[in-house]
Specification:
It contains 4 helices and 9 strands. It is of the alpha+beta class and about 150 residues long. Strands 1, 2, 3, 4, 5, 6, 7, 8 and 9 form a 9-stranded mixed sheet that branches. A hairpin with a 4-residue loop joins strand 6 (about 70-80) and strand 7. It starts with a strand and ends with a strand.
Length: about 150
Amino acid sequence: MDIKTKFAECLIYNIRDDGTPQFLVLKRSPDIKIYPHIWQIVTGTIEENENAYECILREIKEETGITPKRFFIFPKVNQFYSPYDDSVNLVPVFIAEAANETVSISEEHSEYFWGSYDEALEKIFMLTQKEILTYFNGFLKNKELFKTLIEINI
């Protein structure tokens, strides 16, 4: 069995004018083979000669049209088992702050939704992505903890 890192994930958020955070979730297209119709955060496949953060920046642009205002490495790695190639996959996680709510989704998704923590948590299908949202929400509530995130200048 192999251990691989061929995917990356990113939670996108912004801060409303009243100071409250909102989170972006995307609904997978009905034409997608794996998990059609589920709500998720941005996910992507790392291409050859691309590192994980380059991959997710590309995927953010392709899937949402967003150019992040700020971009962070998040101290969490997701994982899943793939029966297709008998591999365990480790998935680096990133956080992106959007400058505004303007989204332009790709054909990979049929809808998008900006919502509160509770609204986003209710929509997201994957438990591991719910955990990312919950964990990051704690960083937003604790300014000292938030300062510990590693920001990548883009």
